[in-house]
Q: What sequence folds into this?
């Protein structure tokens, strides 16, 4: 079911149906792939940290970019997506807004993501939202690139990590059956949180994981923390 909401004069259609039947944004309304639990969480992020320098990976129809612009009133908002074709309603929205920058045709796990982040946020980022591939390896690589740029007290959110545990995904016929569960990344983040103060806090809901940056830096080995596993192996699922 699609629900319409309005924020600061812009209409959003909350469309969390499967990708192939989702609607398209147009000049009257932006498609936003989020239900209320996500939006409530972003209200909480605003209340507790009021982020102003924001980067989103995975723009789809541009609804989340516009929603974040209206909710957070950022100083700088950067979006990046693998899709090559610009999202026209989003580009129209951005036309008179110098603080928004969009990148198309870039894969989240490649150098171009880091480059875009460094170019736009030379002094750090307050909020990163990864709502892109939802694949383990790409999401992990993105985290290793961008988390070091998040300011102490800033937030790194990975949406929809729990897809592998939904009833629909217990079926060998889904095309991503052989993909590693994102839960493996949650385990690794937990080991990181237990090993180094670089993670101050981690909050896991069914919708997303939200990581608050602590002081300190990611170790040189990134998320490879085998030296903190007492020579035991983590079992991949
Ligand atoms: C779930 S949609 C994003 C929904 C949007 N954030 C919202 O809330 O309305 C996922 C988006 O990620 C993009 N994507 C998929 N794989 C990607 C990758 N490897 N790098 C960058 N973007 C990717 C897709 O093109 C798609 O636009």
A:
């Amino acid at each position: 079911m699609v629900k319409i909401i309005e924020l600061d004069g812009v209409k959003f259609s909350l469309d969390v149906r499967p990708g192939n039947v989702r609607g398209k944004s147009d000049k009257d309304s932006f498609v936003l792939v989020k239900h209320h639990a996500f939006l409530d969480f972003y209200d909480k992020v605003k209340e507790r940290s009021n982020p102003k320098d924001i980067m989103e990976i995975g723009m789809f129809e541009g609804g989340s970019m516009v929603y974040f612009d209206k909710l957070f009133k950022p100083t700088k908002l950067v979006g990046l997506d693998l899709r090559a074709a610009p999202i026209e309603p989003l580009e129209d929205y951005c036309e008179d807004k110098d603080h928004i920058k969009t990148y198309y045709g870039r894969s989240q796990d490649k150098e171009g993501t880091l480059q875009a982040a460094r170019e736009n946020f030379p002094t750090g980022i307050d909020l990163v939202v990864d709502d892109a591939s939802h694949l383990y390896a790409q999401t992990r690589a993105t985290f290793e690139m961008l988390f070091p740029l998040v300011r102490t007290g800033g937030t790194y959110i990975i949406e929809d990590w729990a897809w592998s545990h939904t009833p629909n995904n217990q079926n060998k016929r889904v095309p991503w059956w052989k993909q590693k569960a994102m839960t493996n990344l949650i385990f690794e983040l937990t080991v990181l949180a237990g090993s180094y103060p670089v993670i101050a806090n981690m909050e896991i809901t069914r919708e997303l994981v939200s990581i608050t940056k602590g002081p300190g830096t990611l170790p040189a080995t990134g998320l490879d923390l085998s030296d903190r596993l007492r020579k035991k192996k983590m079992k991949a699922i």
Remarks:
- The pocket of S-adenosylmethionine is lined by residues 32-34, 57-60, 63-64, 81-83, 107-108, 131-133, 138 (CB under 6 Å).
